[in-house]
Amino acid sequence: MKKTTVAIVGCGRIARSHFPALAYFDDVRIKYACDLIREKAEDLGEKHGAENIITDYKIALSDPEVDAVYVLTPNYVHYVVTMDALRAGKHVFCEKPVTVNYDLSVEMAKEAEKQGKLLNIGVCNRYNETVERIAELNKNGVLGNLYHVYCSFRNYRSIPGLGGPFTIKEQSGGGVLIDWGIHFIDLILYIMGGAEIKTVSADMYSEMAKNIKDYVYRDMWAGPPVENGINDVEDYVTGHIRTDKATITFSGAWAQNIDKREMFIDFLGDKAGVRMDYSGKYTLYTTRDGVLVEEQPEFEKTNMYLREDRAFIDAIHTGEHTRSHIDNILNSMKLLDYIYRSAETKREIVL
Questions:
Q1: Which of 48, 145, 172, 233 could form a disulfide with 19 if both were Cys (CB 3.0 to 4.6 A apart)?
Q2: CA–CA dist 324, 332 (Å, integer)
Q3: Given phi > 0 = left and psi -120 to 50 = alpha, else beta, which region is 321?
Q4: pLDDT by residue (tens digit) across 99-110?
Q5: CA distances in angstroms from 244 to 30, 145, 193, 210, listed in the order given
Q6: Which residues contact 9 (CB under 8 A, 6 or more apart)?
Q7: 102-115 vs 330-345: helix axis angle to the nearest 10?
Q8: How many Å separate Cα 259 from the centre of its chain?
């Protein structure tokens, strides 16, 4: 059995999901674990059978045995490493968001096409059974006319790594929208079966940590705070989107002065509605024979990272453009770009 040889660049938080998934596959060989902080690469690489620990990703790119590169770095590094890997003749799996803005995302897609290589993006929720089930409900007409979708991704005082890469726009591309919102926006568009955007109106705020030293927090993953750092991204976003299918409204907050964590999506159809809890459950509300019905189906859930990585590895050999191929993700990045533009210009964007 010929194994697919991969190099993993970036051994931080998200790599903890991909390393065990790739190590699980008998037909995958993890040849390199790479991180600028060698200890991080050693920790995950040695635990999951990486053959080599490196701090310079170009060593892996120069290795003809490497078939594919996983780019699991901070957002602002996605573009450079991905472009280098594609030009080196490697297939690429790049974590979400594609990169810090839509224009650079398009460049990455064009380079992948030019090189004849796959570029898949880490939109793991497209491999979540809950998302798949709701997509089937919509596709099969169970919801009837899906006319509106509302989503909330809000938490109480939880800005990640305040003052560091997560809150420096040049490095992250944005705040809560590009960090959390991309997951919600992308899975909504996926469940809708794609949609043509008509208008976008949004507002953003960065109110909760204007003074980093004084910010009091409940939780700070990717922390601790960098007191002399930068915070120039949004901690709250809200907006309204019109499409050729349904309207979409959303509200997202890394930090708010309401002690509630609300992570859900409501799909409203004229025959039925669904509330999807981001934890993985969903509830269907409908009527049968004139009686109101509420159902919360029980079903076996598998590891979505395992399924996502399996699809990418298989696609390397088949050439299939899977649901996470860059061509299927660009519309989500374009919508994020419209949301940022609307908020920055304080006007509705009409397409």
A1: 48
A2: 11
A3: beta
A4: 999 999 999 999
A5: 44, 12, 11, 38
A6: 32, 34, 35, 57, 60, 69, 70, 71, 72, 73, 81
A7: 160
A8: 25
pLDDT at 319 over 80: yes
With contact defined as beta carbons under 8 Å apart, do 4 and 68 qualify? yes
Mean pLDDT of the chain: 97
| Alpha-carbon gap, residue 286 to 147, rounded angstroms | 15
- What does the pLDDT look like over 172-213, one tens digit per residue? 999 999 999 999 999 999 999 989 999 999 999 999 999 999
What residues are paired with 287 via a beta bridge? 292
Per-residue pLDDT tens over the stretch 222-269: 989 999 999 999 999 999 999 999 999 999 999 999 999 999 999 999
Please report the pLDDT score of residue 194 as a whole number.
Answer: 87
User: How many whole angstroms separate alpha carbon 96 and alpha carbon 121?
Assistant: 6
The model's pTM is: 0.94
Q: How far apart are CA 9 and CA 81, in angstroms?
A: 8
Residue 266, Cβ neighbours under 10 Å: how many?
16
Q: Are strands 262-269 and 247-253 parallel, antiparallel or unpaired?
A: unpaired
Closest CA to 335 of 180, 234, 151, 200: 200
Give the residue carrying structure tokens 């994020």.
336
